[in-house]
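Re: weekly structure request thread

Next one in the queue (858 aa):
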Amino acid sequence: MPGENLTRDEARERAALLSVDGYDVSLDLRSAVGDEPADGPRTFRSVTTVRFRCAEPGATTFADLIAPGVTALSLNGRDLDPSEVFDGSRITLEDLAADNELIVDAQCAYSRTGEGLHRFVDPEDGEVYLYTQYEPADSRRVHACFEQPDLKAPFRFEVRAPEGWTVWSNGVGKQTDGVWRFAETKPISTYITCVVAGPYHYVTDSYTRTFDDGTTLRIPLGAMCRKGLAPHFDADDVFLVTKQGLDFFHDHFDYPYPFGKYDQAFVPEYNLGAMENPGLVTFREEYIFRGKVTQASYESRANVILHEMAHMWFGDLVTMEWWDDLWLKESFADFMGSFATVGATRFTDGWITFANRRKAWAYRADQLPSTHPVTADIRDLQDAKLNFDGITYAKGASVLKQLVAYVGQDAFLEGARRYFKRHAYGNTRLGDLLSVLGETSGRDMGAWARSWLQTAGVNSLTPQVLLDPDGRVAELAVVQEAPESHPELRPHRVAVGLYRRTDGVLGRYARAEVDVEGPRTVVAELAGAEAPELVLVNDDDLTYCKTRFDETSLAALRQGLGDMTDPLARALCWSALWNMTRDALLPAREFIDLVLRFAARESDIGVLQMLHAWAESAAVHYTAPGHRERTDQRLTESAALHLSTAEPGSEHQLAWARFFARVANAAPAFEMLTGLLDGTVTLPGLDVDQELRWAFLDALAAHDVVGDEELAAELARDDTASGKRHHVRCLAARPQASVKAQAWAQVVESDQLSNALVEATLAGFARPSQRELTAPYTEKYFAAIERVWEERSIQIGMIVVQGLFPSLQESRETLDAADAWLQAHPEAAPALRRLVLEARDDLARALRGQACDAAADA
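Done, posted below.
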C-alpha cells in the first residue's frame, strides 16, 4: 500500500506540525492461543489513546496503523467512520485542535514474518510465544501511532494475556485482575517500544552501582528464553557480561543508565541479531548455544550484548531525527561494542575480531554500486530498511575508531558525555555531535566529517620502499588511491610497521605513526631503518582502508605468513590478502594455498573460522571453473587432515569439523561423516552433539547420501524449533529437480512459511554442487521478483530477492539477464533495484576473480 512507505518529506512536515504528549496502549493477546480462525488472519484487539498538540489548529495530518480492520475511531470526542478515514495503513486526521486526543480501537494481525507482533508456536510442546520487533517502522502493526523517530513520547502499556503467561514491556510491570500494567516510559521513539509475552523461562539478578557523589543505582536484571531452551541457557554468563558492560559505560559516559530495569529476551524466529528496546532488549535465540561452540561465539554474543547496551545512550536516550543519521546510533554502538568488549570482558582480543570480521563486511558494502556515505540520503522507509548495512554499522564504527585516533580517546569520550547531557530524550543531527566533538578536541570536525562521513568508497594504501646502497631504507612512502567512482582521498592516521624474520619469527622491529594525506606521503621517521621483508601499512588497524603490499612484502607472506607472532598483524595481513582476491589482484587458488599452508597455525579461533569461510567462498566464486574440482578436493583433504590432527576437544578441532562438513565433496569424506554420525568413526575429544549432527547431515543430504527417511529420523530425535529449521534446510538441499521445484513454490508462490523457515528453505535451495540443477530458475527469478516485492512484507521480500538470486550461475548470460531486468524495470521500487544491483555486482566480481585465477595458468 502506498501509505506504508513513509517519506522523509512527509515525516518532516508532520514533525513541524505535531508534538506528542503520550500514548496509552491496551492490547488483548488472549487470542494468541486456541484454534486457527476459519478465515482471515489471527488478530488481537489494540486500543490506543494518543494525546498530541498541533501547531496549526485546523490542519490535516495522518496517524499510522497497519491492521486488517478498525472497529472504532474518535478524534477529540468526535466519532470518525473508519471506512472513510482509514485506508489500511493511514488514518486521516482533519480539523485538528491545538490539543488533541485520538482513540483507535483496531483489530491487528499477529505476524509470522518477524515484523510487528510475532507469534511462534513451539513444535516441541505446543506453547505459544510472542514478541514485538519494530525497527524501522512496525509498531504501527501493533497500535496506532505517529511512526517516526523524532516524535518521541512517554508510553503506558497494559496487556491482557492468556492465563499462566507472563508479560514484559519497557517499564516495570504488575499484574492485577488479569491485566498487566506497566510503568510509564521516558519519552522514547515508537520503534523501540516492546512487548514480550508467553510462558518464557525467566531468570533474575540485579546490578548495583554507587557513584562518587554517594548516590546508589540499583537495576533489576532479567533474562528469558523459551522453556525448551532453558537447559542450555547460561544466564550467569549473560548477566556477567551485562554487569561488566554497565560498569564500563557508567565509568566512561558519566550518565547513569536511564531506563530502570534491564531485561534481555532471547526470542525465536528473530530477523535481527538484537534490538535495543530500552529496558527490554530482544535477541535472536541462536545466542543460546545448544551444542559446543568456540569462544568466538561467546565473544560475538558479548559484543552484541554490549552493542545493544551502548544504544541505551546512543539511540534511545539521544535519537537521530530521521534515518539519514542512523549512524548516530548504529556506528557508535558497533564501535562501543568492541571498545567495551576489550575494555570490560574476558575477550581482550576483540579488536582482532573487529579488524577481521566487521571490516570485511564494511569493505564489501563500500565497493557495491549501492555504497553510500555513512550519513546517507534516506528518502523513505524502504531506504531506511536497506541501510542497516555494512556501511552504517561496520564502516561507521571503523571511522569512529579512526576518529578516536584523530582527536584522542579522552576528547572523544568527553564529547559523548556532553552530547548525552545536552540532548537527553531528544533528537539530533550530524551537526549536534560534531559540535561537541569540536569543543572537546579543538579539531576542525567539519573537514573530517566531509571526508569520512559525507563521501563514499574505500581508499587503498600501498607502501613504496627505496633502499640505499647499504641496503637500508632511503625513503618509505605510502601511496593512496581511490576508485574512479568515488575519488575522495581522505586523511588517514596510520601506523606503518616494518617486519623482518629473526630466529624463524616474522616480527616487527620498527613502527611509525603518520598522517597520510593526498596521493603520496613520505614516512620520514623510518628513513635509515634496516631493509624490511614486510611493510604493513595500517599496522594496529588505526584507519579504515584496504591495505596493499609491495612485491617484497607479498613474497614474505607467501613464505612465512604463519611465522608472524602478533595476532592482530596476522589478521590484518589475511584481511588484505582476501581483499586482493576479491579485487582480482590475487588468484583465488593462491589465496587458498595460503590458507591450506598456514591456517592450522592460526591461534585466534575467530580468525581461523573466518579463513575457513573465505577459503570456501574463494573456491565457490573466484576459482576458475576448470580448477574447481581439484580445488574442492584439496580443501576436503586438508580439512580432514587437520580435523584428525587437531588437539582433542579443542576449539580448533570443532572449527575444522564444521569446515570439513561444509567442503566435503567425495565418497571418502561422506563415509567419514556417516561414521561420525553412527559412531563407527570416533575422534578423541570430538563430541558429535545435536548441532554438529545436523551440520554433517546437511552435507550428506546435499550430496544424496541421506534422504527423507534419515532426515525424518533425525527430526524425531530433535523435535524442537531448531531441529525443524535444520530439517527444512536439509530437505531443500537434496539434489533432485522435484525438491528444488517444491522449495521454489514454498517461498515464491506461497506465504505459508514463517520468516525462519523461508530462510532455512533458501539456505538449502542453492548449493555449489548443484549448479546445473538450479540453472532453470534464473529466468524464473527475474520473472517473479517484482511480484514478490509487491505482495510480501519488505522483510520477506528482501530474504527472497537476495536468497534466490542466481549467484551460482556464474556466466555472462546471467549477468546479461540481470542487466536486462534492470533496464526493463527503471520504475521498480528503488529498494528492489538496489538488491538486484548488489547481487549483480557480486556476480561480476566473481567473474573477474575467475578470469584472474585462470590467467595464473598462462
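The mean pLDDT is 96. The longest helix spans residues 830-855.
Next request, please.
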